[in-house]
Specification:
- By secondary structure, this protein is mainly β.
- The chain folds into 3 domains: 18-154 and 164-175, no CATH class; 188-287, Immunoglobulin-like; 290-363, Immunoglobulin-like (Sandwich), CATH 2.60.40.
- Helix content is 12%, strand content 36%.
- It has helices at 13-58, 66-71; strands spanning 100-101, 104-105, 114-118, 125-131, 171-173, 185-186, 189-194, 197-200, 207-210, 216-222, 228-234, 240-244, 246-254, 262-268, 273-276, 279-283, 290-297, 304-308, 311-313, 327-333, 337-342, 348-353, 359-363, 368-374, 385-389, 392-397, 402-405, 414-419, 425-430, 434-440.
- Strands 3, 4, 5 and 6 form a 4-stranded antiparallel beta sheet that branches. Strands 11-10-13-14 form a 4-stranded antiparallel beta sheet.
- The radius of gyration is 33 Å and the shape is elongated.
- The protein starts with 12 loop residues before the first helix and ends with a strand.
Length: 441
Amino acid sequence: MPKASPGDRGFSLLEMVVALAVLVAVVAFLAPTLLSTVESTRSDATLAEMAQIYEAIVGDQRERFGYVGDVGTYPASLADLVISNSATGWRGPYLGNANVVSSLLTDPYGRPYEYYLVSGISGSDQLAIISRGPDGLSTNTAANPNAAANFTGTAPSNAAYVSGANNADNLVYPAASAGNANALNVDVLATLALNIQNFDSNSLVNAFVPACPNLYRVTVTSQTRGTAEVSDLGYAPGFQVDVPQGIYQVLVTAQNMAAAPFNERVTAIPGQTLTRSPNITGLDSSGTDQFVLTVTNKQPSEAIEIYQFASEVNATDGSGSLAANATKTYNLRACAQIFFKKQGATTIRDQMIMPWGNAAKLVGANAATLTVTNNYNLPNQSDTIKIYNNDIFIGDVRDGRTRSFTVGLTAGDVIKVLNVNNAQVGPLLTLVSGANALTVN
């Protein structure tokens, strides 16, 4: 039988032990690096998925508008991005390959994501997606952390968040920063402004002039929801409303026209003001309907006279000038230019365009400003309130926000608030001279 060569013999027990020891040493040396690499890969995957969730909610805010653009509000739960909640306008799923376990959207660690959402007062909202990281711990102990309303514990916008118990390895998107209090801010509202000019063929005018209040009605319809974000709202110069990001059809109808004079599809980009300035013909204020204007002369010791264009008009009781601190009513043509002059002089104390409808005017009253805070802010519901001054719309305030009104307000003006959802009116506020504040809860 041939004799085995040295190269053919097997490993000795000693050699195998030595090789195994070397292998164990190499694995022990490389293990932390390998584990770190695996953890880094999982962390990167989690952050990438969180970015996708964030964009599913608010889109890219330029061409795609996500859940907010379709539905008009934030989702109540992250699971709403994948599982239809029957909301009008829902066009999901907004995420591909999402991991949903027991109706909860989970991260690559197999744990439910946290959803942080706070509607800002007078500014942006704060929105963040949070993973509890490798240890699965968090100061947010909600049983359903997917629901924004359930968030508890330290807010991720708080500089002390990462030092809070159980938050050290949590991942937050967008990345919060102790030096940047606005890191989590997001704005999903756009402002729609209308500046309508109508051509008045009255021979005393014969020019384009600012449209008279309430001659035109405005409806703004979401193209995804098919519902009116703004429904048949009276127009007055300075018209501005806020709408969630998305695509809208803006329709303007006129009290004196059978056909709508303006109908345009627009894109509402968050954080921007979209202005449309239609020029509309078809008005002759010499023959418009007459309405009642109630005038109060707040001049302390001066009578005034009321002029429609260049002609003085008497009160409904047949009298002429209006004495100081007196109130009278006048029948005036809608859209006519009205001047309030010092008695027996050409000095103009005030002026206005007569609305299409009954109205009130205070002449000589001190200027006033108004700040309105809408504290309804109910989860997953838009509680917009409309603000009216003497029954003329002056603007709206979205839920959780504050807006200031400064143009044309005077002491004695009556402010009315209308809730869009329940159509209830209130409270009523009579302005005083200077600053006024109103909080609606």
